[in-house]
Amino acid sequence: ELKVEQNPLFLSMQEGKNYTIYCNYSTTSDRLYWYRQDPGKSLESLFVLLSNGAVKQEGRLMASLDTKARLSTLHITAAVHDLSATYFCAVDLIQGAQKLVFGQGTRLTINP
Amino acid sequence: DAGVIQSPRHEVTEMGQEVTLRCKPISGHDYLFWYRQTMMRGLELLIYFNNNVPIDDSGMPEDRFSAKMPNASFSTLKIQPSEPRDSAVYFCASIKGGGHYGYTFGSGTRLTVV
To answer: What stretches of A38-95 adopt beta strand conformation (E)?
Structure first.
């Protein structure tokens, strides 16, 4: 069975701290996507990682991809309250099918 | 571009009634996806289309659900009859095949079946 698993599912942290969200997937893929969802809102694309070793950064968020380990990380640096949201990773598990399989989501709460 | 447009934003209906959700993908996008999101099951892919043709409907929960895409700019997801367990947020998303930008999601339709 094709699986995309995120860890942790819930994360509460203090402003100013650093933390990492992990995304493991169960089969070969070289495309991984990160999305953000605010409560009651839609999903917004954050990062697209298209090859092994890809690293993308936007503000306090940095995403990386290790296709050999089937692992992506989303690192948060010096967290601020505005980053509170649910973060999803998604993998294109069947190349060319354009069919993404999503992880369960990580609900991130950043406390002042 | 106005993005992926879904309607209605909210729908409250009684059990047994027919519900139709609508989606207009981004112009030029040739793939369209319907997802359902619940707290218990997360994001589930229901069905997706390529060039208006259904490619994979294995996620459609049962025969009460049906989806159509009569042209490149419009798709519907219909539930008949609706049941309380269908209550969820339904998202439509589109993408241009061969692109590497991931899906663009619509704002979603929050369905409540009472």
So the answer is: 43-49, 55-58, 61-66, 71-76, 85-92
Residue of A nearest to B41 (CA): A104
A81 exposure class (CB count in 10 Å sphere: 0-12, 13-18, 19+): exposed
With beta carbons under 8 A apart, name residues in chain A contacting B56.
99
pLDDT for A23-32, tens place per residue? Answer: 999 988 778 9
Using alpha carbons, select from A112, A46, A42, A55 the residue that is nearest to residue A84: A112
SS3 assignment, position A81: helix
Do B102 and A90 count as a contact with CB atoms less than 8 A apart? yes
Candidates B39, B38, B50, B31; CA nearest to B92 is B31
What digits encode the pLDDT tens for the residues A81-104?
Answer: 999 999 999 998 666 667 888 999
- The first and second tokens of residue B17, run together, are 């009634």
Cβ distance B42 to A104 less than 8 Å, yes or no, reads: yes
